[in-house]
Amino acid sequence: MTKKKKxxxxxxxxxxxxSVATLWWAASNRKASGPAEPATARVIxxxxxxxxxxxxxxxxxxxxxxxxxxxISGKVVHLHANIGDxxxxxxxxxxxxxxxxxxxxxxxxxxxxxxxxxxxEVQARLKLARVQYxxxxxxxxxxxxxxxxxxxALKERDVALAELTLAQRQLEAARAALKEAQAKLSYATLTxxxxxxxxxxxxxxxxxxxxxxxxxxxxxxxxxxxxxxxAFVDEVDIGKVRQGQKAVFSVDSFxxxxxxGKVTAIYPKAILQENVVYYDVVIDITTPYEGLLRxxxxxxxxxxxxxxxxxxxxxAEAIKRVRGKTLVYVLxxxxxxxxxxxxxxxxxxWIEVAGGLEEGQTVFLSEPQTIEQPSVS
Length: 377
Known about the structure:
By secondary structure, this protein is of the alpha+beta class. Among the domains are: 40-47 and 308-364, conserved putative lor/sdh protein from methanococcus maripaludis s2 fold (Beta Barrel); 65-97 and 189-222, CATH 2.40.50.100; 99-181, Orthogonal Bundle (Helix Hairpins), CATH 1.10.287.470. Helices cover 31% and strands 38% of the residues. The protein contains 3 helices and 23 strands. Strands 3-12-15-14-13-16 form a 6-stranded antiparallel β-barrel. Strand 13 and strand 14 (254-273) form a beta hairpin.
């Protein structure tokens, strides 16, 4: 064997010997030191500023999104709307064919005019009949006329009065028909009920729409200046949320920008998603957001709860659930004693202890094994 090979062999044997010695030393130390002491912590007082985290979406406020539809059937002759166009309240969006509706309006206007002329005629006849009746009543006193003439004059007056009443009712009916025809004519012109932006268009010029139980939708208008956030809060946390609480949220489009708001409503009806119960919490946006937020943007929401100061707290890992009870293991007389406690808020890695512990006590962070009592000399 060459000298070089001998040196390599000696080096390998030396490394093996060092490794064996190191392992033996480590094992000896473990036996000497015994089992590791369980981790513990002190019960302390601290301030809590808890919050509820939720995921939500940007939505239009109630009344800020309107679907504009046709109340009558007809052909679309003009469509003054494209997706993304801004519109003002009262602005004309679309027009249906209206020649037949205009003809009905003209017919009813003529009927109103005829009824008004007839009333004028009947009023003149009634005036004359009243004069004739009064004249006959005077003549009968001096015996210059007959009772039959007086009765005939009275009859003429009553007939004229009845005709006047009938003509007035006919005029009312004609005016009502005219108003109905004018209303139908107005339905042929669709106007924007709110100011906003055209979000969608569902028809085209030249199409014929048929109005049934549901009005055919022409356009969808959204007022982007009236938005809110609908945050879906887990049923575990919904009891902590109250109207008026402040909230902050961010959207994926502007991750570095934080928007502020406040809780304005909590929907009473639950929403079930993947077998988890959530409640819709409405957040009114108080930070200016014009030109930034759009509907259906995903929002990461933090609802800020009221702060609690100087409360007892322990690390969350010290809290155990055993047979339906909330326990901690307290170091007492050198032993681990289970102690039932009442917990409150959670703030990060800390949990409020509302009862069962005192400040300064030592608790175990994990369920301990049997701890030997101190020896008695």
